[in-house]
Each structure stands twice: as C-alpha cells, then as structure tokens.
Amino acid sequence: MSVMTATLPPAAAVRSVADIRRDFPILAREVHGRPLTYLDNTASSQKPIQVIEAMNRYYREMHANVHRGVHFLSETATAAYENARLRVARFINAPHPKQIIFTRNTTESLNLVAYSWGRAHLKPGDEVLITEMEHHSNIVPWQLVCEMTGATLRYVPITATGELDFEALPRLLTERTKVFAFTAMSNVLGTINPVAELVAQAHAVGAIAVVDGAQSVPHLATDVQALDVDFLAFSSHKMLGPTGIGVLYGRRSLLEAMPPFLGGGDMIREVKMSGSRWNELPYKFEAGTPAIAEAIGLAAAIEYLEGLGMDWVGAHERELTTYAWNRLHEVEGLRILGPEPARRGGLLAFVLGDIHPHDVAAILDQDGIAVRAGHHCAQPIHDHFGLVATTRASFYIYNTPEEIDRLVLGLYKAKALFDL
Amino acid sequence: MDDLYRENIIDHYRHPRNKGHLDHPDIRYHDVNPFCGDEITIELKLDGDRIVEAAFDGKGCAISQASASMLTEEVIGKTLDEVKAMSKDDILEMLGIPIGPVRMKCALLALKVLKAGVWGLEEWPE
Ligand SMILES: Cc1ncc(COP(=O)(O)O)c(C=O)c1O
C-alpha cells in the first residue's frame, strides 16, 4: 500500500545501539543538566522519528474520517488505517486481520473481553482464574464481572522467586474454570510465563485463555497461532508506538459470537428504532471514530521493530538485563524481586535497604535518570512480598551498559545520603 | 539532589522526633496517601485548647516522615485555632526544600492528618 511507504528508510537489520539512539530525538535531551538516562520503558517506551514522522505525515497529507467517505482523502485514510491492522496481524501471526481489534490500550482490551465475553458466558458456580502477579488491568475487570455475574475469582499464587506456583495450578484450574487470564510477562517481577503450556492447560479443562501481552509483545517475538491463545491484549505505547491505541487479538469464532462492547457509529450494520444489527468483525468492536493517526504510528513502530528483528531486540535486552543484574548485586543492601535473568524480561524491580523507593527515584532523577517507583499497578505482588513499593529500572532497544553504570552510581549516592 | 535531601530532612527521617503513641490522646487521626503508600497517624494531648503533647507514627518516604516529625515539634504549645490557621506555605517553609508537584502530597500528608484531627473529623473506616 503506497500510503504506508514511509519517506524515511526502514531500520537496517543490524545496527549499533548508538545508531539506533539517533532515531530517538528525546534521548538527546538533558534533564537537570544531565544527559537523560531513560530506564522507565516498562511504563512506556520512547518513540523513534519514523513513528513521529508517519503520524505527522498522516495529518499533513491524508487525514479524513475512515470507513465513511467516498472521497479521496477518506479512502486514503481508510487504506492507511486498515493497512495498520494488517501489519499488526502479521506481527503476531494472526490468521486474519479481522481478528485485530483496535482499542485504546491493554486495559481497554482486557475490559472488552471481561465485559463482552464474560457477561455473556459467566454464571454463578463458574470460576475465573487469574494470577497473583497480574497488573491491576487484568484483575479489576474480572473482579467487576465476577460481581455482576456471580462467578468466583481465584488466583494462582506465586513462589518466593516470583514465579507461578505450578504445583497449585491443577487444584485451581478445573472444569469450573471458564477463563484463565494471565500475563505473559510480569511488569514487576520480570517473570516470563510459559504461555503455550498455560494455554494448553486452560484448554484441557475447557477454559478460554486470555493473555496480557503488554510486556511480552514489545520485547519477544509473538505468534498467536503457535501459542494458541484465545485473546491477547497489548499497548502500542510500550512498543515504540503512540499512546491512545492498543490491540485485542481474538479467536474468530469467539469474537463472532460475542455481543458488542460499546455501542455507536461504525459498529452497526443497521439501526432501526426497534433495535440494531451489528457490523462484522472487527468493526463490531470499534464504535465511533478510531485513533487513525495512532494506528498508523503503531504500524510504523512495528515496521521499526521488524527492521531490527525481534530476535535482536530480545538478545539485546537479555544482555543488558544480565549486566544490570550483576551490577545491581554489587550494591550492598539491594534486593531484586523475581527470577534470575535467564527466566525474566528486561526489567528489574528492587528495594535498597530501608530507603523508600520514592526517595531512591527522586535522587536518581536529580542525575537525569528516569526510573519508576511505586507499586506499578500491581499491589498484590507487593503485598505478597510485604512491600508497599519498589524501584524499577527497565530497558529497551536504545539502552546501554553505560546507562546501567550511571544507575549504579546513583544508587551509591542514595546510600551515602541516607547513611546506608 | 542535596536540595531535596538536605541534612535536616535526613536527620528527621533517620531520627524522628515524637515518634510513637500517647497514652489516652485527646485527638487521633490516621490517613494514607494511596499513591505512594505513605501512612501517618498523629495523636495530640490537650490542655484546654492548647496542644501539650504530640506524637506521630507512620511509614513512607523521607519527605512525608520528616514533615510529620517536624510538624509534631512545631505544634506543641499551639492552640487548636492556630493549627487550623496553618497553611501549605507554613509546611514548605518548615521543610525548607523545593517540593515539586509530584512530591507535594508526601510533604503535605502530615498537615492533612493534623488538620483533619483538629477539626474533629471522624477517622475514615479502613
Ligand atoms: C503487564 C501489564 N498489563 C497491563 C498494563 C496496562 O497497560 P495500559 O496502561 O497501556 O492499558 C501494563 C502497563 O503498565 C502492564 O505492564
């Protein structure tokens, strides 16, 4: 599709990190007079110029509402929007682009499943199984839907190393379980869960498997057919794309049988005063004018990631994570949550003695180092470990070992200041 | 950085004044900052409407806990009306450090708890 051939060249297959960094204008800025060290990628990634330009170009040259006009611009915008859907479908190896529903973010994608599928199928006596390591966005929608339907919510516990307690699973995953919803990668522990195996176990008891891919899709190659997931949710803003757009992938037969989530324009085939008939997939689930520029931005982000190769992305992060793991362990009094580097993604949440994580983050911020402090929208994990908060450093394609060295220096500063 | 974590902040955090509980306080109030998980309880003993003893308990970041420690020192000897008249600026002056918008809630939690107690609010059931 000609509208998507960006003016900028796609990222070359093998590039130095220094070269990649030049694509990210924000990485050249200073914070408090220091070079920015951005280690908050789990919360949201930065954007390469290719994404920013693709969105600018859309607004400069192509904008009109989609699916409605017969004029040139509307057709151009529709083609670009639908092409973005195609790119997303290919990126996760979905059988058909119809199975890609654009939402606002992971949170909305998970709510869509909980409300639309959950309200139609759950009843008293049924169980929804989630895990203790979920982000609030994969807890609260299920709490709400269980309250509405009378179903019971159960949690798979986690072990001391921050992994799912597989011994407890057979007791919890039973014929009563109608949904097993779990994260592919924890945003606090870093734990990478064995998605295909968990999906197979869910299917063996007749449950559907809903996977929170917010942390996995940006960092690991994802094949929804190989994993056999029923639903997969993820956010553009964590994978180099803009905020305001997310994805729900769904198994076609399930999506087709589900009632709509939101009502309005675009999602209907026919509206009569007596009632309406729904549009076909994916539009049944995309009520109202969608985030068109954002979809195009997401497609550019995917193109960028594919240019690097997801294998390279994963390898780069593993290298950084191992380096950071070793360096952080040199800091006396520092404790990292979750499993060792071989079994985790590119993030490390830790506590430093009795220094409150907000103080750690504030001290690092003075040196231009951006980390996250708090419960990271995962209070049950923190409760499990008896903590209110942790400090989290997280990595992406543009991070370097030197940045991790800066982080470690900053942690020594914090220790000195607090007499630790 | 030395701005935000001046010695007196660290000192009050590491060696909090009036930390603990009073026997039979006349006023007690507890509140949390759900965003950070900071927690503060303040207890006061009165002679008429004058504060004669103050204590705090809590956990959280250095800013929130130092602020509570300093505040208990500050209010002993004050009347309830004087406490009611205390403002955000009084706290910022007392802390003597620049507080950005994100940490403002930490800095002001102790004042919020103190004022709620002094105005006689019922504690929010947990
Ligand atoms: C594991 C996980 N799930 C869900 C979310 C929610 O993502 P969003 O805020 O984009 O909806 C996040 C992001 O913080 C996350 O890390």
What's the SSE blueprint?
The complex is a heterodimer of chains A (420) and B (126).
Chain A: H1 17-21, E1 30-31, E2 34-35, E3 37-38, H2 49-61, H3 72-91, E4 100-103, H4 106-121, E5 127-131, H5 140-149, E6 152-156, H6 169-172, E7 177-183, H7 195-204, E8 208-212, H8 224-227, E9 231-235, E10 246-250, H9 252-257, E11 268-272, E12 275-278, H10 292-308, H11 310-329, E13 334-336, E14 347-352, H12 357-366, E15 369-370, E16 372-374, H13 379-384, E17 390-394, H14 401-417
Parallel strand pairs in A: 3-15, 5-6, 5-7, 7-8, 8-9
Antiparallel strand pairs in A: 1-2, 4-10, 9-10, 11-12, 13-14, 14-17, 16-17
Helix pairs in contact in A: 2-10, 3-10, 4-5, 11-14, 12-14
Chain B: H1 7-14, E1 27-33, E2 38-47, E3 50-59, H2 62-75, H3 80-84, H4 88-95, H5 104-118
Antiparallel strand pairs in B: 1-2, 2-3
The structure holds pyridoxal-5'-phosphate (PLP).
Structural features:
heterodimer, A: 420 residues, alpha/beta, Aspartate Aminotransferase, domain 1, Aspartate Aminotransferase, domain 2, 2 domains, seven-stranded mixed sheet, four-stranded antiparallel sheet, 14 helices, globular, disordered N terminus, B: 126 residues, alpha+beta, Sufe protein. Chain: A, three-stranded antiparallel sheet, 5 helices, binds pyridoxal-5'-phosphate
Count of β-strands of chain A: 17
Rounded mean pLDDT score of chain A: 95
Proper CATH architecture of chain B: Alpha-Beta Complex
Going by CATH, the homologous superfamily of the largest domain in chain A would be Type I PLP-dependent aspartate aminotransferase-like (Major domain)
Q: Kindly, what is the distance between the CA atoms of the first and last residues of chain A, rounded to a whole number of angstroms?
A: 59 Å
Per DSSP, the total helix count of chain B is: 5
Work out the count of structural domains of chain A: 2
- CATH domain class of the largest domain in chain A: Alpha Beta
Helix content of chain A: 25-40%
Q: Helix and strand string of chain B, N-terminal first?
A: HEEEHHHH
Identify the overall geometry of chain B.
globular
Strand segment count of chain B: 3
In percent, how much strand structure appears in the residues of chain B?
15-25%
Give the % helix of chain B.
Answer: 25-40%
Q: In what order do the strands lie side by side in the largest sheet of chain B?
A: 1-2-3
Specify Rg of chain A, calculated over alpha carbons: 22 Å
